[in-house]
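batch job 7 of whatever, protein = Membrane protein YhiD involved in acid resistance
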Amino acid sequence: MESVNFSDIFKSSFLEKTNSFSIIDSLIGLLVAFAVGLFIYWVYKKTFSGVIYSHTFNISLIVMSMATALIIMGISSNILLSLGMVGALSIVRFRTPIKDPMDIVYIFWAIVSGILCGAGFIPLVIIGSILIGAVLIFFINRIKVENPYLLVVRYSDRSIENPLEHMVAEHSLKHSVKSKSVMPGGDHEITYEIRIKENNMSFINNISDMKDVKSAIMLSYDGNFTA
């Protein structure tokens, strides 16, 4: 039978874990996570092309990177803690609506960076973040994509359909009729999908001035009215 002395009774497992805990490594990982989060913050601000810029969302990317690194550091040396953390995090639900699909890319980037920083893969996260940032800046700010528009015209007389078709064809690179309907009261409404020339939308004023045209609306696919 083994004897139990006084020191064994008051032995603390907390102190044992503290001795195996490297404060310097943890500080380095958190500082790198903070630096990478700042880089993600800068890239997001540089590449944002929406209407309303969310400063709080951008700051949350920095905190997300650091918090993820902190979690990985905590569970990396304890299998029981890691299982408990997975169970605790499984009840968390992210219910904030994501309006721009690119926001998901930045969230995933921040989480992956935090994981790598917490696991100690510092060179990998630095090289990967630089490459990802360069790709995002190049493709979003340098490559121009011409998005199609929807032209919705409401008119009262069907006789203007041919002149309207010619005018749309003359001022667009490509167009097609998406829908055509008869409104209550005898009015007609037609919707074109068009790609305009050199972002010139002045021809919509000519359409509005046509006889029997009651309204002409240009609508982009992101939901912003441009006329």
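notes: The CA atoms of residues 155 and 213 lie 4 Å apart.
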